[in-house]
Design goal:
Layout: E1 2-7, H1 12-19, E2 25-31, H2 37-44, E3 49-51, H3 59-72, E4 77-80, H4 89-94, E5 99-103, H5 115-121, E6 126-133, E7 143-150, H6 157-181
Parallel strand pairs: 1-2, 1-4, 2-3, 4-5
Antiparallel strand pairs: 5-6, 6-7
The structure holds 5-O-phosphono-beta-D-ribofuranosylamine.
Length: 198
Amino acid sequence: HKIAILISGRGSNMMALVEQARGYSVVLVASDKPDAPGLAWARERGLATWALSPRGIGKAAYEAQLDAALRAAGVTVIALAGYMRLVSDDFVARWRDRIVNIHPSLLPLYKGLDTHRRAIEAGDAEGGCSVHIVTEELDGGRLLGQARVPILPGDDADTLAARVLIAEHALYPRTLAEFVMSPADHIHAFATTLPEVE
Ligand code: GRF
């Protein structure tokens, strides 16, 4: 499978997906933030990159160009990794069951932002991260994998985030590899034909 990774920032999960690639190859790193630090890393590694800011052109035009870049690169699966933009329903429909995301909580707990602070404030004994299929519902698609870490006395959102991030870097490549290599276990995502290129 040919993977595109979508980032908005530092891209540490993107780096983990590139460095631990197994059963898939990363053919494009794309961003809504042309100055995302992770893009520079990808370029230095010789990876193909694409970046465009939706500012000024609007979300629909931005996503149309993104979609064209993904199809031109022959992408079959999209991995969101710190991509801070909501994907439109239309885009989800065009890539149904072919977009995955990593979220820094034990879903279905703490969808959305500020997950670590919320877990600490709730008095949870564990935090963690989840890899899931992206659907129209925010952080709501089917779970593909999860990793847990303890919440320790004295933790704040930053110390917990750092502990969870280490788990993310192990979970995401492993889960993506399983997802692309065992299609039988995962709906009919890869039995169906890819959408036509327009
Ligand atoms: C990660 O914690 C990820 O789970 C969340 O945003 C953070 C992105 O970090 N969605 P990075 O850009 O991968 O370093």
